[in-house]
Amino acid sequence: MALLEEELRSILNSLSYLSAQGDLPVQTFATLVKNARTDVLVEHLHQRWLSDSNFGNAAARIVAYIHRDNPNDMKLPSKVLSLSLDDYKKRYEMRRSDRKMFRNYCRSLVELMPIFFDIDKYMGTSLVRPLFDCMFILTESNPDDGDLLCVAQILIRSGQLLYELDPHVCDKIIMKCRLSLCSNDIRLSDLTRFSLLNAADLWTYRWNLQAMPYCLLQFYQAQYEAYHLNEYEDKRWLPQGMYQSSTTTLAPSSVSSFSKLTNDDFESIV
Where exactly are the transmembrane stretches of this chain (predicted)? Predict the structure, then answer.
């Protein structure tokens, strides 16, 4: 029996609430929603990840779980990918109308991309350029504090993945973060400045915490503790080992299981 839309909305409301608290029993929720009509489920997931900065991770995990349960059915991942690419075509309009929604879209891309790589290399590859382009928009197009914090958190959490996909483009984004950190034109919060610095240091050591001097690890652990970060919304963007957290995510920090993109797969962005 197909899940009624009202029931689906109620289930996703509960998941949104729990995602804000850091408790994500996604497997349970995925089991409940998998009987919904695919087009209805995708549209509701889409609306949620654009409006809720926490929901991109939950949506990606739901897609992954349902696909693993029925790997021959590509309707759900295909429709999710299609909506993500449609939003990419409208990225400038979205950015002008609602910066927060645009940042949530960027966060959803970095959550969905490794899931799609796991499903199909070419599906994952199709989100690489949109993510990089959107990160350039966040750093180049009259950025504000929220934009730069979003970029820094993406680099901190998933920078190793991005670097393995295209080190040249990742280097350019890091340099734009450095310029923003040194600029007096943008009023940055202490957390944003600190996060930009953290991203730059992680880039220096290629996101290898074992290569990073212990004094730096101590510095960042102490500073993050001092900021009293929200357990789910902020701490989950940190690389594993940078801060002890009870929150876990599905997104990997590396794409070592994926083949590195060739020039035929992904043309240069710049």
Answer: none
